[in-house]
Design brief:
With about 180 residues, the chain is an alpha+beta fold. It is built from six helices and four strands; from the N terminus they run ααβααβαβαβ. It has a four-stranded antiparallel sheet with strand order 1-2-4-3, sandwiched between helices. Helix 2 (about 25-35) crosses helix 5 and helix 3 runs antiparallel to helix 6 (about 140-145).
Length: about 180
């Protein structure tokens, strides 16, 4: 059976970590974010908030990270700063606060679906993406400086055009994690 366009896109998608120096148009990113915004959710409210840092706007993100950098080694600052500068744009993704554990879990899962939608749309446009989680990006001072205080950090998406596509990594057979009841 021939694979559909969707199957081909999913299977060819790669995490891209190194970008070429080429700007990304904010209007294009807005269009892709708008389409990704169609991700399913359970709470009758889109649970995600997005903070787009494009071009020189990445300086705002770097400034907001400055207090968190003061707590760690210089090598970490250089590594993270280099990664942000290497990307054409960054999207800081959070979930809105929910009162119940179920609400928080639903928000997190829906936001992950949003990110996957966005990743696939970027891949279709030959825009590379790496999804970074945890660590310094969860710093409360950073969140306060960009207006995300009280929200749950889900990921920093670094975006850019690229030349080299990583090779496909071997995956275990689906049979290793699938149980069928018929």
């Amino acid at each position: 059976m021939e694979k559909t366009v969707g199957q081909q896109l999913i299977e060819s998608r790669r995490t891209i970590r190194m970008f070429v120096e080429e700007p990304l148009d904010t209007a294009l990113l807005y269009q892709l974010l708008t389409s990704a915004h169609q991700a399913p959710f359970h709470n009758k409210v889109e649970p995600w908030n997005l903070y787009l840092f494009n071009g020189d706007g990445k300086g705002v993100l770097l400034d907001a990270l400055e207090p968190a950098f003061q707590d760690g080694p210089e090598a970490k600052r250089e590594k993270i700063t280099g990664r942000i500068r290497n990307a054409a744009a960054c999207v800081y993704v959070t979930t809105k606060p929910f009162e119940t554990e179920k609400g928080q879990k639903d928000a997190l899962l829906a936001t992950a679906t949003f990110i996957q939608n966005f990743h696939l749309l970027c891949a279709e446009q030959n825009i590379g993406l790496v999804w970074r989680t945890g660590g310094i990006f969860e710093d409360a001072r950073l969140q306060e400086m960009i207006g995300a205080d009280g929200e749950t950090f889900v990921g920093l998406l670094q975006l850019g055009r690229f030349e080299d596509v990583p090779s496909t990594k071997a995956r275990q057979s689906l049979d290793a994690c699938l149980t069928i009841f018929e």
